[in-house]
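Entry 14. Ran structure prediction on the chain below.
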Amino acid sequence: MAGEGLIQRLPLHYNVLSKGSLKHSVRLVELIAAVPTTLVIWRTYGLRSTIRYLAGLMMALAAQRAFLSAMIHKIGPEQSSLADTLTLSRAATGAVLAGLVTSGIRDRKGIAGKIGWLMSLLGVTDWLDGSLARQAGPTRLGGVLDIEADSWLTLWSAAGAVVWGELPGWCLLPPIIRYLEPLLALKQGKLPQGVGPWWYRIVGASQMGLLILALAPIDWQRRKQILAAASLPVSCGQCAAIVVLLARKLQKG
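Output, structure tokens:
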């Protein structure tokens, strides 16, 4: 109850969306994500790894900016909210993971691994921006950003789990083919939507749980065997769920 009261007192609405209206929030989020992680990587792993980390991070942030600009242009002006900025911060954690993947660092139990695990755990802030959006009133942009931020974070969490978390490479397939869904929506003249049936959400949660488990900077007995045994049914289940959902949308379209 106290948390809900705090949310109600926050200045949830703050501007009107245009191509440049969120630039200050975006830049602030990017700085908060990039500066401390870059300094830690430089101090711990040296200049070469830092340059590679920055290259991956900057490319991921550029892709996020391009997507944001395209969606604002498509949606048009509307009042934005604090929830939209929080959602953008979740996307930025995916960019940090992208930088770690390209850095060449394979140190799951070290500093880099702990940063990557923390970034994947920050995906749970989904409940917070959802609460903020309900209090302020959802925006069309916020709905698009929410599902795509989750997908972006899942994609790079999966890449990290494969590269240094010892998951099989096929675990990258579900987050990759999931992007067929927004492509289909855009082709049909619609906006990407994150609403799905309960079984789809459960399968997605199991996939993210597997990735977080693989990225955890700790070892336990039979870790590799457990991850290998769980990865195939979870990945196959997610792929099947995506295919079924796409088939339904194609029929409706």
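The first helix runs from residue 2 to 9. Will compare against last week's run tomorrow.
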